[in-house]
Amino acid sequence: MKQKKKIGILTFHNAHNYGAVLQAYALKTKLNRMGYEAAVLNYRNKYIAKTYRKVLHIDFWKRDILPSRWGKVLREIRDVFYGLPEWQRQWKVFEDFITDKLLDGNRKQLSLEDVANSDCDMYILGSDQIWSRELAHGMDPVYFGQFAPEKKKISYAASVPNSSIPENEKPFFKEYLQSLSHISVREEKLAEILRELTGREVETVIDPTLLLEREDYEPLLYERPIKEGNYVFAYFVVESEGLKTCAKRAAKLLGFELIELHYKKTPEIQGKNIILDAGPMEFLTYIRDAKLVLTNSFHGTVFSILFRKKFYSVYGENGRIENLLGFMGLTDRHIKEETGIALDKEIDYGQAEGKLKEYRQKSVEFLEKGIEE
User: Fold this and answer.
1) Cα Rg of the chain, angstroms
2) Comparing 6-51+95-211+359-372 with 220-342, is the CATH topology the same?
3) Are the C-beta atoms of residues 177 and 202 closer than 8 Å to each other?
4) Which pLDDT does position 146 carry in this prediction?
5) Fewer beta carbons below 10 Å: N end or C end of the chain?
6) Are 258 and 277 in contact (CB under 8 A)?
7) What does the angle CA 9 – CA 221 – CA 88 come to, to the nearest 5 degrees?
8) Per-residue confidence (pLDDT) for residue 187, from 0 to 100
9) Overall average pLDDT of the 262-271 stretch
10) Spatial separation of the C-alpha atoms in residues 143 and 304, rounded to whole Å
């Protein structure tokens, strides 16, 4: 019997946001269902880890000593203490999910040397903005495959902020990406830049969360609704008055309660049914049972589609959501203000899922090619 290939996944799996952990879960799950032995490797870039510490913190800069900055600093201090209990509850839920669902109970953190000396047959780098100098505080060699030169490495749906590479970073990309046998990214704009830079084939693939179908997420869902009755669910990946206005308007028109999920508690967030400490499983369950979802989040949009919900993506500009809605033929689900709400308009999920199936197959073929060739 042919031995299963061991694949190590290197990504921002420890970032405490729903998209980061669910994309890692999805890629690991898909690879295992394809017949491989996939594991998320617990390498943690120290600057990503610092961002998601249990105790909220404030980064002070030299300019903060200026009296003109004191008001801003005092507001940040206020917000840290105001939202600390909710943040710490959310922190624990995320850490438990990461340990149990991504790392299979293994809490040991790995160094670059540990990664290089692992028993993996190959490595997949991505998804997420793993090539972001800003997030990783430099060009982290782990996410560019600068280790174990004798082993195969590919990227899957890797990305950078705004799908662009500054001129001073291009020499690093040109050199570092030579270590990858196959390259795929999230956005076509970035793919074009890398093709020109490296002279190699660079493919675009779907976000890992879209590699799975709805039933694949069933193990993460609560058996019963968290909130009984009909409700509108609004998920704020960033705070937005426009999204808040649209959500309130939709709930009023439907006569349903409004549930809001926010990233962090601040004094400005007021109202009934405000959720501030939900983990990934709660996030998915709230979407599953909502009558209508409104969000300015890419992954909020993804799971609304996978769960066949009525939804609106509410934003001014967002390339990732626009690309997703565009290739699925759902651009009418993008609104900028409450006048765009049309609650009687149905969504043709048959057509949308047909397009997703094609793109999903193309992405699976990239994985098979990258692993087997």
Assistant:
1) 21
2) yes
3) no
4) 97
5) N
6) no
7) 75
8) 93
9) 88
10) 30
Quickly count helices (H) and strands (E) in the chain: 13, 12
Question: In sequence order, which residues have a C-beta less than 8 Å from that of residue 6 and are 6 or more positions away?
Answer: 36, 37, 38, 39, 119, 120, 121, 122
258 vs 77, which has greater pLDDT? 258
For range 263-270, the mean pLDDT: 87
Token pair of 60 as six digits: 């002070």
Report the 10 Å Cβ neighbour count for 206.
22
Q: Domain coordinates of the chain in residue numbers? A: 6-51+95-211+359-372, 220-342
Topology at the third CATH level for domain 6-51+95-211+359-372: Rossmann fold (3.40.50)
**Distances, alpha carbon 218 to alpha carbons 20, 222, 306, in Å:** 18, 8, 12
The answer to whether 298 and 324 are in contact (CB under 8 A) is yes
Q: How far are the Cα atoms of 52, 55, 190, 234, 349 from residue 264, in angstroms, in the given order?
A: 12, 13, 31, 14, 33
Give the count of beta carbons closer than 10 Å to the beta carbon of residue 294: 29
Rounded CA-CA distance 139/136 in Å is: 7
In order of 124, 171, 192, 240, the CA distances from 195 in angstroms are: 19, 14, 5, 36
Q: Cis omega (within 30 of 0) on the bond before 127?
A: yes
Is residue 292 scored above 90 in pLDDT? Answer: yes
pTM for the whole thing? 0.94
Strands (E), 104-227: 122-125, 152-155, 183-185, 202-204
What's the length of the chain?
373
309: three-class secondary structure by DSSP = coil
CA distance 137 to 236: 26
Gap between the Cα atoms of 187 and 322, Å rounded:
11
CB neighbourhood size of 261 (10 A): 23
CATH class of 220-342: alpha beta
- The pLDDT of 146-159, averaged and rounded, is 97
Q: 96: part of which helix (H) or strand (E)?
A: helix 84-97
pLDDT beyond 70 at 41: yes
The tokens of 257 are what? 């309660």
Alpha-carbon gap, residue 320 to 299, rounded angstroms = 10
Please name the residue that has the structure tokens 């179908």.
213
User: What is the rounded CA–CA span in Å between residue 76 and residue 56?
Assistant: 10
Show Cβ contacts of residue 82 under 8 Å, excluding neighbours closer than 6 positions. 265, 266, 267
